[in-house]
């Protein structure tokens, strides 16, 4: 097994990570469609491997208020995963789930926050399930925690926690729903050793 160097990854390794991103995002969207009992069209995800400091620029500005759903990973794959979306997307999802006016943009109630957490639980679970099926690796995820804050503040926590593991983040941007109403970003930050395990399990 060749040890992966995130700064100098070969095209085949990156293509495999991109494909994992595509399949995971597709699986997560299907799970969401089932939950909402609606047909969801998804655009092809945009997958990039970025330094932490570039992630905020990719999703907007540091001052943009976003919803972040964070889970930590254990088992064969260690690290963290975060699902980020802007407030408009989060409101739209919750309103669909709760049967409310889809344009409602009030402060989130406790019940709506709980629903948002459950959405995060389902889509991150579906994402990780597809990763586990693809690789044959056991991935144990924590209970998700949902935070609403400015993007810069929200991303500073995983940057500090996982910046010491490696500076590169797999960022998967996905849009789904009618007129791409929901825009979301998956951040996958495995430890370096876990990247090696993922690629090794796929014969690379």
Structure keywords:
6 helices; 204 residues; alpha+beta; single chain; 7 strands; seven-stranded antiparallel beta sheet
Written description of the protein model:
This protein is α+β, with helices and mostly antiparallel strands and about 200 residues long. Helix content is about 45%, strand content about 25%. The protein has 6 helices and 7 strands, in the order H-E-H-E-E-H-H-E-E-H-E-E-H. The protein has helices at about 10-35, 50-60, 85-100, 110-135, 150-165, 190-200, and strands at about 45-50, 65-75, 80-85, 140, 145-150, 170-175, 180-190. Strands 1, 2, 3, 4, 5, 6 and 7 form a 7-stranded antiparallel β-sheet that branches. A hairpin with a 3-residue loop joins strand 2 (about 65-75) and strand 3 (about 80-85). Helix 1 (about 10-35) crosses helix 4 (about 110-135) and helix 2 packs antiparallel against helix 5 (about 150-165). It is globular.
Structure summary:
This protein has helices at residues 11-36, 52-59, 87-98, 110-135, 151-163, 192-201; strands spanning 46-51, 65-75, 79-86, 139-141, 145-150, 168-176, 182-190.
Helix content: 40-55%
Order of helices and strands: HEHEEHHEEHEEH
Unreliably modeled segments:
none
Q: Indicate the overall shape.
A: globular
Please give the oligomerization state of what you see: single chain
How big a fraction of the residues is strand? Answer: 25-35%
Largest sheet: 7 strands, antiparallel
Task: Report the mean per-residue pLDDT as an integer.
Answer: 78
Q: Report the total helices.
A: 6
Distance between the termini: 7 Å
CA radius of gyration is 16 Å
SSE-based structural type: alpha+beta
Per DSSP E runs of 2 or more residues, the count of β-strands stands at: 7
